[in-house]
Task: structure prediction
Amino acid sequence: MALSRWIDIGIKLGLLVLSPIFFFLLCEVSVRIFAPQIHGWDGPDPHGTDPVLERIFRPNVTSGYIAADGRRVIISTNSMGFRGQREYGEKDSMVFRIAGLGDSFTNGSGVNDDETYLMVMEANVNRGRDDRTLRVETINMAVDTYGTIKERIFLERYGLRMQPDLITVAFLPNDLWDNIGWLERQRRDKELKAEARRDDISPLSPLIGLVYQLKARSHFIVWLGKKLMAMPGVYRFAYRNRPDKFDYTSPDNRKQIGEAYAVVNDELGRIKHLADSIGARVALISIPLRYQMVTGMDDIKGDIRYLDKLLSGSAEKWGIEFVPLLDTLREAGSIQECYFPMDGHLNRDGHRVVGEYLANWLRSRAWFRGAGFSEIDDELLE
Result:
């Protein structure tokens, strides 16, 4: 009798353990059949490694992947590893060249080569122009996972030689921890005398590492994540409770934020110094995260504009143009979704909104019109 009771308990425990596994497998098979979530690159991975920058784009690569909205997108690089197939030589006297620094938001994760906000801006300003007239030429130098430090190093190494007239530096709140993470890895690698440096896409906690592994292998987890992250409350909770990040809006984190932002401020000064050495201007573009769209202006637990206030101060200190996009994207977001719910990047509409706004902003600058892009020319473009 005692043995049969233990057998009964064992069966119940086995069912308790196995039932969730069977349920997960059933969901996984169902999603793979009826709503497959394609993973990985459809072609060679365009990323390479670098001992200092950690991650770079390999030159002359064309590959595709399925974006968060289910579209198949193409990413190409030219001979210098810049996004897009267009090559850049000596700057033409009829060209106003813009070098765009940034991370995956600027590089255009989830959109095609010609859909990034830099290309949208270029197309808008150049509408109605040809090779016989002054025109804008943008170079997308952004690389996913980069923070302000890496962007400055990339500018030193590759950007200055392209002779840009304007250098745009895209800032996102995650640049704070990207910079701190890079400095920590540099310190650790120096202490360990490591021959190879770890790519900074590596998660900072085991929990986030597990999520990355599930996202990379499970169609059901990706499908479920898209559905859940489309819900504002879930997205807000997930963002605030990530163990590898800190909430930049909370007054409780101001000391930590101040220390991290000091790095950003110093790097902006270095970028301005580099720009001055070639006679270029610098524009600091503040791109909000989807979190800022979801939370709204009346967030009582923090100041959603706190970083923009810090950035505005740095721009004034270093003589840099400051372009905040929070209100622009929030206004557009009331009409259409500008971010991918799953990964939080700008989608095609988001890049279009940003690109069109930056084109109008550029036309409004006196120094831009003084370079030959007059108000009369702008009227012809409308």
The radius of gyration is 23 Å.
